[in-house]
Amino acid sequence: MRREIQRAEKLNILGELAASVAHEVRNPLTVVKGFLQIMNEEQNEKHRGYTQLILSELGRAESIINDYLNFAKPQMQKVAVLHVVDVVNEVVTLLYSYGMKNGVEVECCPLDGLYIRTDKNQLKQALINLVKNAIEATPTGGLVQVCLAEEKGMAVITIHDTGKGMSKDQLARLGSLFYTTKDKGTGLGTMVSLRIIESMNGKAQYHSTPGVGTEVTVSLPLCDV
Ligand code: ADP
Ligand code: MG
């Protein structure tokens, strides 16, 4: 128990530190990006190539900063009754083009009538990280499916991918701080998702087979409407 409290305290301090650095760095980045976009319109071909490169690296810096800000973000700012299918549809729409860019189809199997009471942005963030991982694990031509079901008073959201899967060892390390197997990964996304789901009294379970794919099952308590 004491170790758990110590760990929570450390995570809090780390989160605050990460947030302040990320926040401070984000502002100058936004300014640089804005001017580059303006300059891009008035340049020759060669220079336009350079600015594209700079913009794409800025985009990468931005996404790293977002990972750190999400890691530190205060939980549950606006709790309300949510229609789960709407949130899932929003997440799938948001990541559809990211999937296309990677040659991965992102598909939704919707189900109406499931309501939960929670913070919408937090839930979206938790799902975005998981769907993003599914897309990133999946080779061109693969499929990511986000499905909805009801089971024993819970809304069940499954994220299924036909990606590279994980070994037992990898599964055991998943969700620990900074664990990543990607060149450009931060190793924060899964931890953020699992923390959010836990704070919603939900559960997340992984089933994965190397070379075949992964399925994450997120269960969240339903509410009365
Ligand atoms: P990041 O995405 O920045 O690497 P995450 O915490 O989101 O950090 O994920 C940690 C690691 O877990 C990933 O680098 C990857 O190796 C593994 N992982 C997560 N989700 C999946 C998945 N759906 N399929 C295969 N590997 C996964
Ligand atoms: Mg990730």
Any overview of this molecule?
The protein has 225 residues and is α+β, with helices and mostly antiparallel strands. The protein is 53% helix and 21% strand. It contains six helices and seven strands; from the N terminus they run H-H-E-H-E-E-H-E-E-H-H-E-E. It has helices at residues 2-40, 45-72, 84-101, 120-137, 168-173, 189-199; strands at residues 79-83, 105-109, 115-119, 143-151, 154-161, 203-209, 213-221. The strands form two sheets. A five-stranded mixed sheet has the order 2-4-5-7-6, covered by helices on one side. Strands 1-3 form a two-stranded antiparallel sheet. Helix 1 packs antiparallel against helix 2 (45-72), helix 3 (84-101) runs parallel beside helix 4 (120-137) and helix 4 (120-137) packs antiparallel against helix 6. The longest helix has 39 residues, at 2-40. The model has no long low-confidence stretch (mean pLDDT 91). The structure holds adenosine-5'-diphosphate and magnesium ion. Residues 129, 132-133, 189 line the site of magnesium ion.
Number of helices: 6
Number of strands: 7
Radius of gyration: 19 Å
Estimate what percentage of residues fall within beta strands: 15-25%
User: What characteristic shape results from the CA principal axes?
Assistant: globular
Strands of the largest sheet, in order across it?
A: 2-4-5-7-6
| Helix and strand sequence | HHEHEEHEEHHEE
Poorly predicted ranges? none
Q: Bound compounds, please?
A: adenosine-5'-diphosphate, magnesium ion
Query: Which sheet architecture does the biggest sheet show?
Result: 5 strands, mixed
Overall pLDDT score: 91
Helix content: 40-55%
**Spatial separation of the terminal alpha carbons:** 37 Å
Broad structural category: alpha+beta
Membrane topology: Multi-pass membrane protein
Catalytic activity: ATP + protein L-histidine = ADP + protein N-phospho-L-histidine
Subcellular location: Cell membrane
EC number: 2.7.13.3
